[in-house]
Amino acid sequence: MRDTLSFSVLAFAGLGLWAQPTLAAELPNLPSGLVPQLLEEFVEVKPDGIFTYARFRFVAPELSDNASLDYEALADDFLVLCEQYALPKLSDQPEPIDRVIISFSDRAIEFGLSDPDAIQFFEQFTLKSGACIWEQF
Question: What's this model's pTM, rounded to 2 decimal places?
């Protein structure tokens, strides 16, 4: 059984992640030049029985319009978002976060559903000593 905490639950649980839109100005500048919008961020408490995950899901419609924005072009963006956006948001969390998952999609897709026409990229990081360590998916 998946125990997912959404923004509204997180806010009331005192975990500090609030349901509010994130403006592009609040996101760090990404090496690729991509300017994504935050779709959602939430914590999954041990859905696999082992780790607690923080997920940060972003939408970037330009992924479907620009063939040069492939994984290789976006690879450094994941680390920047983990270190400069996710880590600061998670620093005060009472629930220890084991993994951060950052994802980009060219369209909003409900979490857990698939869309074969969507362009999506994902990366996972282990949090260790205040740093994001890339984990091969």
Answer: 0.80
